[in-house]
Amino acid sequence: MAVLKEEGVDTIFGFPGGAVIDLYDELGRTDIKHILVRHEQGAIHAADGYARAKSSVGVCLVTSGPGATNTVSGIASAYMDSIPVVVLTGQVPTALIGNDAFQEVDIVGITRPCTKHNYLVKRTDDLARVIKEAFHIARSGRPGPVLVDLPKDVVQGKAKYKPLPEPRMASYHPTYQPNLKQLHRAMALIKEAKKPVVFSGGGVILSGASKELTEFGKKLNAPVTASLMGLGSFPGSHPLWLGMLGMHGTYRANMAIGECDLLIGIGVRFDDRVTGKVAAFAPNARIIHIDIDPTSISKNIPVTIPIVGDCKVSLKALNRLLNEEKVKFTKKARKPWLDQIQKWQDTKPLRYEQKDSIKPQYVIERLYELTKGKAIITTEVGQNQMWAAQYYHFDHPNCFITSGGLGCMGFGLPAAIGAQMACPDRLVVDVAGDGSIQMNIQELATAVQYGLPVKVVILNNRYLGMVRQWQELFYKKKYMATDIEHAPDFSRLAEAYGALGLKATKPEEVDSVLKEGLKSPGPAMMDFWVAREEGVYPMVPAGAALTEMLLV
Amino acid sequence: MQKHTISLLVDNEPGVLSRVAGLFSGRGFNIESLCVAETLDPAISRITLVTRGDDAIAEQINKQANKLINVIKVNDLTGTEYVEREMALIKVQAKADYRAEILRIVDIFRCNIVDVSPAHYTIEVTGTADKLAAILSLLRPMGVKEIARTGAIALGREKK
């Protein structure tokens, strides 16, 4: 507990059980806040949301066996998105390990491939050092979840705690400083490029480099796009902003990738949802790739200039070089390229038609207007997530919290709870679908218990909408197992939990419901009955080139 | 698909081998052979593993292995000067007609006979994978009953 305090932990999300009862007893003697969730998956997602909103390490505490296994999806999600989380799991006493004891599971074995690192603590004397290392590993380098498995007798044992120095590990030295030679080589390409595109990812947000990225984009006078994870790293209202890239990216962003002669990827990992068909990705471009994790470089896409280093440090260095060499890229010099982009924007913007039934895009646009773009948005996974990414324009980092890599349904509500704990004064909204929300809807009780005023906007189409869209496009409209009309009345369910429940079925009700929900002092769930078969467009079919988009 | 012999120095702790093996299976890299033992420093073990893949895959294997917290050093020996050895124990049928022939082969390949019974010899052979393949092809017609192989171990050569 002393180490936890030392590491600046003020909030733990958890669920008790036999193996961690001693830890809970001790926790009660500290001033660390404990948020009791209703399912352990909620605890890990909340810790994830907390970590992202606060740019610090989230902590989650659960018991052995099922307590531990229930966190696995959340750990995998945090791992894919590189989110610093420390997961403390109980374990049966060391003498019983391997005996198939009650609530025993080899959680270290189970989570080995989905944690950055994990530990089984065997001696009380190691406890403080391991916890310290866990925090160090979770937050440094490319961040990620670290699990510490704590056998009951190890926790019950007593050891004298002496404050420890920052851990030094022989085998773990993330590279923060980029290689200067590589930076100079990158500069040479930047100077030559006529049609550059800057592509920003989650790494920029994680390293706190949004300011530097924005400066870089402006200095280059180059259009900037981002992956789902990178939204908010460059202001969404800036004229150089292209919108998101990839499967549901904007027409101009995807076309720009197809046409550009230089692509500068920063803190990205060229995931398949971003690249589409690899062979046709940025076919005319030389690629500069900056990332702190060398494994991300040349994994999916071969790059011209790899730069291993922290995004913030590297961008600062590049900005400095641009200043030193007095390289300027004027609006005039960039005009043909920017004009081309504007043409793409003018011919094929994001669009929808608001007619008789509520369009989900309209709800997000109204949410954006009414919150003046200042809310922290968490999302579930699927169409709701993509509409939120397309129609809510993020001007600041750490405001869009979504399960990007793993695509873990049920993420949004607990993540919103975590974000609200991290930022009590901010407005936190979970954009949900009627399918995803049901995966962790029990956490509404958590929000009500702790008076956390999170808002849930359900885009309710009575379908598992994203899968339905695929079935419509690629499976001859055979809607196999995607119709979920049998659902609770969400507004009444919210009331049953003690939250405010609202419902809108007509376009003219959208504003009033949003206004009432957003201004209510407590948690609120707003159920919007949207057009059932609305799809997310543009869409690049899986395996197709980015420029082969299906449009509305 | 080129063969790569990779030498890893790792923390000598429970679970480390599983991390390395899990990395290979999880990412679809194959392992042809693998050897692990403690080094002079009891806190450190050396893993020698042989894998196949093109340059891009070899690069990923190196980077991914390096990323594991318990891996201290990764050295892809392929393309460098190094010595590589494997050992095999071969239990071969030793019928009266063949006994002299087997002994001659053992002599040529500088092997040892480490166990003798009325009907079998157990031969210890050390060398490169090619040498092991060669002796096996000679012994096979006589009837190899069982075989146990270590997989390759390797060290880089020092500059002369």
Which SSEs are present, and which pair or pack?
The complex is a heterodimer of chains A (552) and B (160).
Chain A: H1 2-6, E1 11-15, H2 21-27, E2 33-36, H3 40-54, E3 58-62, H4 66-69, H5 72-80, E4 85-91, H6 107-111, E5 117-120, H7 127-139, E6 145-151, H8 152-156, H9 180-192, E7 196-200, H10 202-206, H11 210-220, E8 224-226, E9 241-244, H12 251-259, E10 262-266, H13 272-275, E11 286-291, E12 305-308, H14 311-324, H15 331-347, H16 360-370, E13 376-379, H17 383-391, E14 400-401, H18 412-422, E15 428-433, H19 444-449, E16 455-460, H20 465-474, H21 490-497, E17 500-504, H22 510-519, E18 524-529
Parallel strand pairs in A: 1-2, 1-3, 3-4, 4-6, 5-6, 7-8, 7-10, 8-9, 10-11, 11-12, 13-14, 13-15, 15-16, 16-18, 17-18
Helix pairs in contact in A: 3-5, 3-18, 11-14, 12-15, 16-17, 16-22
Chain B: E1 2-11, H1 16-26, E2 33-38, E3 44-53, H2 55-67, E4 71-76, E5 82-93, H3 96-108, E6 112-116, E7 120-127, H4 129-139, E8 144-149, E9 153-156
Antiparallel strand pairs in B: 1-3, 1-4, 2-3, 5-7, 5-8, 5-9, 6-7
Number of helices, where a helix is a run of at least 4 consecutive DSSP H or I residues of chain B:
4
Give a quick account of the main beta sheet of chain B: strands, pairing sense, barrel closure: 5 strands, antiparallel
* The CATH H-level homologous superfamily of the largest domain in chain A: Thiamin diphosphate (ThDP)-binding fold, Pyr/PP domains
Q: What is the first-to-last residue Cα distance of chain A?
A: 55 Å
The percent of residues in helical segments of chain A reads 25-40%
Rounded mean pLDDT of chain B is 94
The count of β-strands of chain A is 18
